[in-house]
Task: structure prediction
Amino acid sequence: MPNKELKTVFFRLLFFFLLVIACFIFAGMQMYRIQITRHDELLRAAQAQYRSTMTEQTSMGEIYDCNGNRLVSNKFVKTIIFDPSIVPSADDREKIAHLLSHLMPELDYKELLRKMNSDVLSGKKVQYVVLARDVDFEKATEIEKNIIGMHMRGLTFKRVNRRFYPKGRMLANVLGISYISNEETTGVSGLEGTFKKELKGEDGKISYYQGGDGSIIRGTVNKHISGQSGKNVYLTINEPIQAILEEEIDQLYADTGSKAVYAAIADPYTGDILAIAQRPTFDPNDRRTMKDKLASTNLISANPYEPGSVMKPFVVSMALDDGVIKRDTIIRTGFDKTWFYAGRPLRDTHIVGNATPLQVIQHSSNIGTAMIAVMLGEKRVYEILSSFGFGRKTGLPITPESSGRLNPVKKWDSLTVTRICIGHAIMVTPLQLLRAYCMLANGGYPVQLRMIDAIEDEKNGKVKQPYLISTESVFKNPGTHREVVRMLKTVTKPGGTSSQSAVPGFEVAGKTGTANKIENGRYVKGKYFSSFCGFIPADNPKFVIVITCDEPTGKNLYGGSTSGPAFARIAKRTLDYMDVQPDMTLEEWEKMISEAKKQSHKDMMKRENDRRASLGMAPLQ
Result:
């Protein structure tokens, strides 16, 4: 072979050899770049295709009463979820529907199949279809095993934390409810909503590898983030007292035919809410009972109203404390039940005549209270009502809460000073009344109403929540409190406006209130808010009770004959539960009531003779 041809072959072989070497070098460089330089990046991208993470719900915190009785608990259930994109075959979908309807007879085969074919029906890509909720945990786990054993794809059994309310409707409006959104439970109202962050805790995270059919590859589950259970909340509520209150307002609600009834009990020294309830209410385990808006609203905190005569003790007590009137001051209310101020009449329901401050409260005289308010002046009356907390929210974790309405003096007209002192031209909530009567009961010391007793978590254990109690009384004179209690005692004895509030063996201090309802800016004849606020034992009170009937029906519409008897029943049962000993024997109590009757008759005769004297008539013998 000529040299020229040899050289040509040689160069061709060399070129081919170099080309092969270059390809190997290029391939090696690519392999190095992929395996070494971009290893982590490409590994993450690959793992993203077959590794998945799901949330594992931890146990939510529970809610207890002050003695550890469970009011809100947890119940784990499972939600069955189907992914149509993983199971495109119609035959496979039918098999799954047949199996589920066989294992769970409560599920309809046709309805299951309709849900599974939601992608076909909608013409859109669907990856998440809920087939069943609230499936019993053990039952769902057994079904899941069957599904895995039959190698069926596209189903996920997600554990869900369902809230359970073991006491049914007890305390329902305060506890509130939670909803499941995206298979996660979240509090939306009441304490469940207020403390949703604390109760929820932190969910755990579980990572795993999944096969091409979306199922978990066994042995690849890796729990890499541990969850933290929610905090437990302990209330100041005492369940036995709560049960007493709820039973009694059930009876009151039925007996009076009221549109609504609400009541609360508190410790006057600590501000602890011992019980709180309303009617109508609902069962949080059955959301169908929430259709009534009145039942699902926290009326006791969100529904302000003109309270009527329960407001009178605040102005009269502070007039005594200021020295504007004295214990024996005579308030001349007149004998025709009508008094004119600023050209407008103010009326009493009966003749009170020449009355002491005690008799003004005992007989609930509108005229007498208004005269005392005029002596105090507008600015001082406003300061008094503000000092008892009216016009301000109580701060309890119940939502929504109204601040009521206490207008500044600049917005008052010439009549306001004579109306606001008798519970008109002011809007209050039962909770504000409860706080104010705690002050009348404890000597005038402002208290912060309190419902959360302690919060418990895994790290710190049970942490007691602080009390907020003032050390300075609104009364400058210590004797004022004794006189206020003395006046309020007469209300529940013969001659007072609510002798039906009496509890045998005990001295009871309280005040009635009846006020026309306002609708569309006008007072409505025949529609009332009828209330009773009181504390017992009067001289060493264990608790304060506030009860209000909204639109009672029947012959007895006044607070003394509607809410008053309910107060007596609730107080008696609660005192028995707390093992509080009576102030006196039954014989001593009956003697006290007999003497009160005699004094009431004597006072009535004096009023009548005063009236006759004003008309020039001879006195009665």
Observations:
- The chain has a mean pLDDT of 89.
- The radius of gyration is 37 Å.
- The longest strand covers residues 522-536.
- Residues 206 and 599 are 79 Å apart (CA to CA).
